[in-house]
Design brief:
The protein is α+β, with helices and mostly antiparallel strands. The chain has 9 helices and 15 strands. Helix content is 24%, strand content 27%. The structure holds zinc ion (ZN) (2 copies).
């Protein structure tokens, strides 16, 4: 235990009590034996617990700051070796059943499975059309070997000697929060009241263990970047007889050069020359359903907006669909040379002043848009 306590917890030396507590809970979760595949997890948890014990108490923290670990010797701190097994450590901090994912106060029922999170990356078109993805998720699942009973093949069930069949026990624990007495799920039988005469070798009697599972995710059309899909009951398996947790899949949508999302609408731009703008033209517009021909009237102005109804994103779990808004950009050429200037002059003088009318201008269009 030579590592610095602050480094162990991953906090600054001036961290508040709250920050230290949060950091400890976070690190403790990472070292959970069901989750961590670090063979030293137990040892590291003990170090972590010692660090937290020292830094969560202002007095011992001050001593540690001044003298280091030497300053903590012979101060009546609980010796973590007294807690016995790793499971006992978890029980002391998190309640019987050893589950640091849950709160300190547990109800006397078998632990339900914990939630798991995953992420999936899709492109813009997939977010508009919907798609399915298979992702690999680390999940604690029911043990196939023992059918989640925790019993070795052929083992017989006997009344639990710890709780005498009640499924729960009263415990008085010295914890870093002081003495706590409570009824908790029996750690021996996990609330079942019975234990097998021999434990399953694969899951060590837990009835579940961690493995990588392939999960198929239906991603609905209209999903937006940063949204998450909740898959009920697809998280970690619970203890015997308890429900599984949920799987939350965060969706990341890659940007697309052609489109920008605005709520349910899609915005794109179309560049045309000043000549096409004057005489009118037909353009090919990319949409999430493929190219679409759009006619532009003679005299199309720059920033003119073409609305393609229903070509935006569908609303998820609702009716309705957004539009695609195509903003026209008119490219004005730079005219050089006397011939071109003369031709332009001739063109200009041939145009009637009324040909410029009928447009409210940019401010007018803005007013229209914000009405
Ligand atoms: Zn098993
Ligand atoms: Zn029991």
């Amino acid at each position: 235990m030579s590592e610095d306590y602050y480094e162990l917890l991953g906090v600054q030396r001036d961290a508040s009590e709250e920050q230290i507590k949060k950091a400890f809970r976070k690190r403790a979760r990472e070292l959970h034996p069901d989750v961590s595949d670090d063979p030293d997890a137990e040892e590291r948890f003990k170090e972590l617990a010692a660090a937290y014990e020292a830094l969560s108490n202002p007095e011992s923290r001050a001593r540690y700051d001044q003298f280091g670990e030497e300053g903590l010797k012979g101060t009546g701190q609980p010796d973590f070796a007294d807690f016995g097994s790793f499971q006992d450590l978890f029980d002391a901090f998190f309640g019987a059943g050893g589950d640091p994912f849950s709160g300190f106060q547990r109800a006397a029922t078998p632990a339900g499975g914990e939630d798991q999170a995953a992420e999936v990356n899709i492109d813009f078109l997939e977010s508009a059309r919907g798609t399915t993805r298979e992702i690999e998720v680390e999940l604690i699942g029911p043990c196939e070997e023992c059918d989640a009973t925790g019993a070795a093949p052929g083992a017989e069930l006997a009344t639990c000697t710890v709780c005498e069949g009640a499924g729960e026990v009263e415990q008085v624990r010295r914890t870093m929060l002081g003495q706590v007495m409570r009824r908790t799920v029996c750690p021996q039988c996990q609330g079942q009241g019975e234990v097998p005469s021999e434990r399953c070798a694969t899951c060590l009697g837990r009835g579940r263990h961690a493995r990588i599972e392939t999960v198929e995710i239906e991603i609905p059309a209209g999903i937006d970047h940063g949204q998450r899909i909740a898959m009920r009951g697809r998280g970690h398996a619970g203890g015997p007889g308890a429900p599984p947790g949920d799987l939350y899949v965060h969706v990341a949508v890659a940007s697309d050069d052609r489109f920008v999302r605005d709520g349910l609408d899609i915005i794109s731009t179309a560049q045309i020359t000043a000549f096409d703008a004057m005489r009118g033209t037909t353009i090919e517009v990319p949409t999430v359903e493929g190219e679409l021909e759009v006619e532009l009237e003679p005299g199309t102005q720059s920033h003119h907006e073409v609305v393609l109804r229903g070509k935006g994103f569908p609303a998820i779990n609702q009716r309705g669909r957004g539009n695609q808004r195509v903003i026209v950009e008119v490219m004005i050429p730079k005219i050089e040379g006397s011939d071109a200037k003369a031709a332009l002059g001739a063109l200009e003088s041939s145009i009637d002043e009324r040909a410029y009318g009928g447009d409210a201008g940019l401010l007018g269009r803005l007013k229209q848009a914000f009405r």
